Amino acid sequence: MQRPILEVSHLKKYFDVRGGIFGKKVGEVKAVDDVSFTVHEGEILGIVGESGCGKSTTGKTILRLIEPTEGEIKFEGQDITSLNYEAMRKLRRDMQIIFQDPYASLNPRHTVEKIISEPLLIHGMNKQERKSRVRELLEVVGLSSYHASRYPHQFSGGQRQRIGIARALANHPKLIICDEPVSALDVSVQSQILNLMESLRDQFNLTYVFIAHDLSVVKHISDRVGVMYLGRLVELTDKDKLYDDPKHPYTKALLSAVPLPDPDVEKERIILEGDVPSPSNPPTGCAFHTRCPMAMDICKDIRPSFEQVEVNHFVACHLYSDPAQ
Amino acid sequence: MKIKEKNPKLNQNNNNPIDQQMEQDDIQVTSPWKDSLRQLRKNRFAIAGLIIILFFVLLAIFAPLLTSYAYDKTDIVNRLQPPSGEHWFGTDDVGRDIFTRIAYGARISLQVGIFAVSGALLFGTILGIVAGYYGRWIDMVISRVFDILLAFPSILLAIAIVAILGSSLENALIAIAIVNIPIFGRLIRSKVISLREEEFVMAAKAQGMKNGRIILHHILPNSVAPIIVQATLSFGTAILEAAALGFLGLGAQPPTPEWGAMLAGSRDFIQLAPWTLIFPGVSIMLVVLGFNLIGDGLRDALDPKMKN
C-alpha cells in the first residue's frame, strides 16, 4: 500500500488540574489516553466521537499546538515530538490545520490578503510572488482575487472557511488536520466545503486527518474512520467496513443513532444509558464498560488492547480479543 | 451585499488590480478602525470632550500670542486685581496675570499627561505582554509586583517616589508614570491571556510564525482598543495627580505656572480674591473632564463589549 505519512503511537495528553491556594496539582484530565494510528499518504482518515472525547486535542497535539504528555508522533518517518522550536517551526509548512470556527480563526484586523500571505512571508517568499500566489489561492478555493482587500467580517461563514483553507494550502502542505471544518456551517454550505476539500485533495495530493462529530460527513469524505471514546480510540477501519460491520459496541450504538431518510424503516436503536464519564476520573478497565450493553467482568478490570481483529480492522474490545490472553 | 463583477481581463492588464478594484468596487472596504471612528463621531459627549481638549491644546500652543504678559513677571502694584479687560482672569498675590499662567500651565499639564502616560503605557504594555503571553513563573513575578504597586494609594506611592527622587516636575512625572504602569500592565495582561487562546493565534502558531511576530501582528493590534481607552482616561488622572503633587509642593516648583501649584499658592486668598483659585481649579476640572469624555466615547466606539 501507500507509505505512511503520519504514525502516531501511544499518544497521551493529560491536562493538569490545579487547585488550592498554592496551585498544587490535584488531578489530571486524560484528554487523549494512549492513542495509536497510522495515516497513509493521500488518504483521508476520519476521526469521530462525541464532544469532549479528545478528538480536537488529538489533532492539535499531532501538530504540537498542544504539547503531548507522552507518546511518539512520526511525520514522514521523523519523530517530531523531540524537535526543537526552530526545527518544528520549519516543519510546520508541511503540516497544516483548518479550524472549526471560521469566525475565530481569522484575525479580524487583517485583510484577506494579509491573512493568506502571512504563512508565505514567514517562510520567505518575496512580495511579488506572494501577491500572485494569494490570488491563485483565492481562485483555487473558489473566491475571487478582488476579495483580497476585504476584511473577514465582510464574508459569510462558508467564505471565511474557504479563506482558512486557502491559508492552510499556502505553503503546499502534505498533511492537513481538519478540526471539524464544517460543523460551524450551514448544511448546504457544508457540502460545498466538503466537495472543495475533496477536489483539493486530488489536485494537490493532500492527506487529511478529518475530525468531526457528524457521522454522515465522515462517511462522505473519509477512506478510513477511527472512533474515539473518552480519549481512546476504540475502533479503526475502512469506511465501508465500519458502517456495514461495526465491531465495538460503542460504534454500534453510535451508528444506530444516525437517522435514515426513510420513515418506514424500522431500526433497532441502541440507547446508551447514563452520561459520558468524566475524563478526569475515567472508569477502570475498558472506559466504556459503565455504559456497555455487553459488558463482562473482565471489562471492569483490564483495559482491552487495540488489536487488529480482521485485515485493517482494529478494535479495542474484550469481545474480540484472543481468549488465550 | 451587491458585488459588481469586473472584467477579469481588464484586471490582469493592470499593474495593481487589487488596489484598483478596491477603489472601484461597490462595496465599501471598511477597516474595523474606520467603523469605530464613525461610531465616535456620532457620540456628542465625546465630541464635547474633544472640543475641550482641542481648546486647551490650542491655548498651550499659542500661549505667547494670546497674551502680552510673561507668566513669571511680577507686578506688586497690581496684585490681586479682579478679572478685567486688562487682566482677563485677574492677577495673583504678586501681580502675575492669571490668564497667562493658565495658558502656560496648559503646556505643563499636557506635557505631564503625554510623558507620564506614554511612559506608563510603554512599560505597562511590555510587562503585560510578557506576563500574559509567556505565563508561568514570569507571569507570577510580574503580577505580584503589580499587586504590590496597586496596594498603595496612588498618590501616596507618588509622594514616596518623589520623596526619594527629590521634588521637581520631572520627578513628579516619573512618579506618576510608575504609579500608572500596573494599571496598563494588568489590562494588557488580561487581554493577552484571552487572545492567546484565540484560534487565529493558534493558526499563526500552526503556520510556523515566531513568537515575536505573533505578538506584534496578532496580539498587539487586537489589544489596542482597551489600551487607547485606558490611555485617554489615564491622561486625565495623570494631570490630576500632577496637580495634586504640585499642590503639595512636591511637583513643579515656583514660579512654574503649574495649575496645582497655583492653587496651593493662592490658598490664603480664597476669600479675598477667589479668582486666583477658581480659574486654575476650573482648568484642571475641564481638562480632566474632557479626557474622560473622550475616553468613554472611545470605549463605546472601539469595544462595545466593554460597555457596562
Question: Key features?
Answer:
heterodimer; A: 325 residues; alpha/beta; Rossmann fold; eight-stranded mixed beta sheet; four-stranded antiparallel beta sheet; 10 helices; 12 strands; B: 308 residues; mainly alpha; MetI-like fold; elongated; disordered N terminus
Largest sheet of chain A: 8 strands, mixed
So how many helices of chain A?
Answer: 10
The domain tally of chain A reads 1
Nearest-integer average pLDDT of chain B: 84
Q: Provide the CATH superfamily of chain B.
A: MetI-like
Estimated structural class of chain A: alpha/beta
* Chain-averaged pLDDT of chain A: 87
Number of helices of chain B: 13
Question: Can you tell me about this structure?
Answer:
The complex is a heterodimer of chains A (325) and B (308). By secondary structure, chain A is an alpha/beta fold. Chain A has one domain (4-94, 171-315): P-loop containing nucleotide triphosphate hydrolases (Rossmann fold, 3-Layer(aba) Sandwich), CATH 3.40.50.300. Helices cover 30% and strands 25% of the residues of chain A. Chain A contains ten helices and twelve strands. Chain A has helices at residues 55-62, 85-91, 112-122, 127-140, 157-169, 187-204, 215-221, 239-244, 249-256, 297-301; strands at 4-19, 24-40, 44-48, 70-75, 78-79, 95-98, 175-179, 207-212, 224-229, 232-238, 307-310, 313-315. In chain A, the strands form two sheets. Chain A has an eight-stranded mixed beta sheet, sandwiched between helices. A four-stranded antiparallel beta sheet of chain A has the order 2-1-4-5. The longest helix of chain A has 18 residues, at 187-204. Chain B has helices at 8-13, 17-24, 32-41, 44-61, 63-66, 98-134, 136-151, 154-165, 169-196, 199-206, 211-247, 259-265, 275-302. Residues 1-26 of chain B have low confidence and may be disordered. Chain B has 308 residues and is an all-alpha fold. The two termini of chain B are 32 Å apart. Helices cover 71% and strands 0% of the residues of chain B. Chain B has one domain (33-67, 95-306): MetI-like fold, CATH 1.10.3720.10. The longest helix of chain B has 37 residues, at 98-134. In chain B, α11 (211-247) packs antiparallel against α13 (275-302) and α12 runs antiparallel to α13. At the A-B interface, α2 and α3 of A face α2, α10 and α11 of B.
